[in-house]
């Protein structure tokens, strides 16, 4: 953490402050010291646990959804399934088990070397890519579970009727927030017009446009679909920057490089980018609705029948409840999909 603090302090010294997006970029993705480059974020021994590692039903249901897409698209070319930010590889492994199709290849888009090792163990035949442009041309299903939330955000606040940007500065060796003139006025204006006049604070995820554009062009060339599952909102605008360390929320400025920094996804932002690119958009629907519509409860019944162990039955129920109960992840997590303008209608959305 000391090394990353030195990097941050050096950058802050240049202007007196840095944007929140630059703070997140350095803390999460610095090529040597970044959290997502270096640390072991996921699992019980890490900082947080995600849906695929809570229950196999998550990946199995998405596997059945993917099989249906492949069936509907009926491409003569071979399909590939790419997990965007593949975590420990559990999701893709569960998807593969359900799909049972030898003519599909699998890949991970990943920057974390520790997770790449986990992913190789989970699915030895899968390929690894660092950028979307490295992925071979072929009909593709992209899956991004808790992928977009890792990207940097800017925050804007109206003080005494004047819009300012939230920055980070340092004093007495302690990072803290400050406000100053907006750095990227074009980006600010582009997003401000999407919020009601009475709004006095909003955030912009600075990478969503690029990610959605890269994926859209890829899918227009090759056909396929991209599924995103993430926590977020369609019409909110509060401060959602958060940090997690050892499964506990901590101050986002207190542990740069060694805590997970994320923000909630503004699904309206994805809808706008998708429309501008002439793509189809499906959703957003809640994770609960999506998984139940796709048969998560029936899958639970089948799995419970396949064991005599009461403990395994209880664990299966508990795992599914964590991802579909509204008080847990069911309501906060939303699902959406984007595809080129074809007749494809993916299951799971109204
Ligand atoms: C919150 S985790 C989610 C992991 C996984 N999808 C899951 O559900 O368990 C974010 C994932 O995105 C990866 N990641 C972060 N920044 C990335 C980037 N710029 N490009 C590709 N992957 C990235 C992380 O290393 C990690 O695998």
Distance N to C terminus: 46 Å
CATH topology of the domain at 39-150 and 216-230 and 281-339: Rossmann fold
Helix content: 25-40%
Helix and strand element order: HEHHHEHEHEEEEEHEHEEEEEHEHHHE
Give unreliable regions as ranges.
Answer: none
Oligomer: single chain
The average pLDDT is: 94
What does the largest sheet look like?
8 strands, mixed
Question: Would you write up a description of this structure?
Answer:
The protein has a domain at 39-150 and 216-230 and 281-339: Rossmann fold (3-Layer(aba) Sandwich), CATH 3.40.50.150. The protein is of the alpha/beta class. The chain is built from 12 helices and 16 strands. α4 packs across α5 and α11 (296-305) runs antiparallel to α12. The mean pLDDT is 94. The chain is 37% helix and 25% strand. The strands form 3 sheets. Strands 2, 3, 4, 5, 10, 14, 15 and 16 form an 8-stranded mixed beta sheet that branches. Strands 1, 6, 7, 8 and 9 form a 5-stranded antiparallel beta sheet that branches. The structure holds S-adenosylmethionine. Residues 29, 36, 42, 50, 52, 85-87, 91, 109-112, 115, 145-147, 150 line the site of S-adenosylmethionine.
